[in-house]
Amino acid sequence: MRKVHRVLPASAISSLEEYLSKRGGEGLAAARTVDPMVLVETLEASGLRGRGGAGFPTGVKWRTMVENRSSRVGTTVVVNGAEGEPGTFKDRSILRRSPYHVLEGALIAAQAVGADRVIFGLKRSFTLEVARVRAAIVEAEASGWSGEIALEVFEGPDEYLYGEETALLETIDGRYPFPRLAPPFRRGVRSATERHGGARPGVTSAATVQMAGPGGATDAPPALVDNVETLANVPRIVQRGADWFRTVGTEQSPGTIVCTVTGSTRRHGVAEVIMGTPLREVIESIGGGTREGHQIKAVMPGVANGLIPADLLDTPVSYEAMNAIGSGVGSGGFIVMDDTVDLVAVAAGVSRFLGVESCGQCTPCKQGGLKISGLLQQLSLSEADDRTFPAVEAGVAAVADSARCYLAHQHEAVVHSVLERFPEELEAHLSGRADGVPPYLVAELVDISDGVAVLDGRFREKQPDWTFEEVFSGKLPADRLGEGRYGDWTFRPREWVSLTDTTD
After folding, report:
1. How far apart are CA 270 and CA 202, in angstroms?
2. pLDDT band at 481 (very low <50, low <70, confident <90, very high)
3. 271: Cβ contacts below 8 Å, ≥ 6 apart
């Protein structure tokens, strides 16, 4: 498989001067000479889709942003670098090697949508990435490369939902990372609704407020939120044209994608590959294939899509092909599981992760998710009875009821894929033929060191109220934190755990 380097350089670029010497900046220079709508049309023609997980067409998002700009307040471009999808390390890899690709893409986006500010939304724990971005901003401002665009870095929490677009905007505005009903191209929602009398007394989070959709009158500042990898693609598309971008990939999934491979492989790593490359080739090239004497049982593309069984490993890594088999590309993070891995334990681990990380605004998502998690843990430990499996099925069917964000649907998709595609593993636990095993550790990837993934082992102690106390308080995050401000949150250092044993 041929690896490429469109957005992930083969080696780190150490300075803005080095970046410009390698023809960096040509896209931004070209963008400054054309009408902003030409940039929007170029992105639409390129077919670039968001690399944050949803795969939404970038040009369509930009056009929507332009159509919903405010005549009263300035526009902001927000770079979503709050990477936290289990098994994914691509955005941090890009920022470590070249924050300049991303910064240039963000400046072009600002030119296209008329923004006067760019905010990088990162996690406070991403110390290396934060340092790289801050240094790049200093260079851009000192040299005048950024023009009149204000640049800043926002350091947010480690919570999984911080990466959800509306929750990211909530946190940047000083509140907790709770997804909201207002569209993602609006920030500063609370002050706007309060001015119009829309907020309930005592409510300090915009998460409870539903604003007007496209075209609705509001004085909330508009914001364009794009993922790190998405924006890293923009400069060369503008520099070389939409047709150039489409020279690789598929019709519906043009370009490249940066993939992370971890789990039961000889090594773990990150590389950029051409869209449409068979998943088996991606695993072989980046991960070196399975460990000696073992075979792949399944592959999990993060915790947003269904598991992929071994007989579908030749499926192309493209949005259309992955969707056709009942899974998805996600953010390009593929966790490989060989024949030693118990998939009921995997389902239990995923369910615990999503149940804990749910914010609690939607009762079926949080309470139902935690119930599913408990039932699956009983199954994985072979402590279930005849009532357990029907209860899991009922819980999965209801967990996404009235959900305001995609997390509950993720819970539904992953657990349902295990129930449907690997019934023999469930039956083995129910019949007593399988040994009880603890849940598979599903947690954020915090590094890949010498070909070995490092997970956030602190998650083992995380409670559903988002604390690390010994005993769960019984309060949901939305209730416990709803009247506080993000700045009041106590920052806790991580506990890094090498991915040599994925069970608790």
Report:
1. 46
2. confident
3. 3, 8, 258, 259, 285, 286
Q: Which helix (H) or strand (E) covers residue 150, if one does?
A: strand 150-156
The strand ranges marked E within 52-108 are 75-80
Instruction: Please classify residue 347 by burial: count the beta carbons closer than 10 Å to its beta carbon, then call 0-12 exposed, 13-18 middle and 19+ buried.
Output: buried
Task: Please list, in sequence order, all residues whose beta carbon lies within 8 angstroms of the beta carbon of residue 243, skipping any fewer than 6 positions away.
Answer: none
Whether residue 418 is predicted with pLDDT greater than 50 in this model: the reply is: yes
Residue with tokens 């401002």: 141
Do 263 and 351 lie in a common domain? no
Domain assignment present for 206: no
Contact 477, 360 (CB under 8 A): yes
Half-sphere exposure of 155 (CA within 13 A, CB side): 13
Report whether 79 contacts 231 (CB < 8 A). Answer: yes
Residue 227, SS3 per DSSP: strand
Report the distance separating Cα 406 and Cα 200, nearest Å: 25
User: Does one domain contain both 44 and 179?
Assistant: yes
Structure tokens at 316: 């192309």
- Alpha-carbon Rg for the chain, nearest whole angstrom, is 22
Maximal CA-CA distance, the chain: 70
pLDDT confidence bin for 483, thresholds 50/70/90: low
pLDDT in tens, 275-302: 999 999 999 999 999 988 999 999 999 9
| pTM of the complete model beyond 0.85 | yes
The pLDDT value recorded for residue 106 is 98
Last residue of a domain, one of 282, 303, 338: 338
Is residue 46 a contact partner of residue 237, using CB atoms and an 8 Å limit? yes
Query: Cα(476)–Cα(373) distance, rounded to whole angstroms?
Result: 16
State how beta strands 333-338 and 296-300 pair: antiparallel
Q: Are strands 445-449 and 269-274 parallel, antiparallel or unpaired?
A: unpaired
Domain of 396, in residue numbers: 343-498
237 with 376, same domain: the answer is no
Per-residue pLDDT tens for 62-107?
A: 999 898 887 777 889 999 999 999 999 999 999 999 999 999 999 9
Judgement on whether residues 270 and 380 belong to the same structural domain of the protein = no
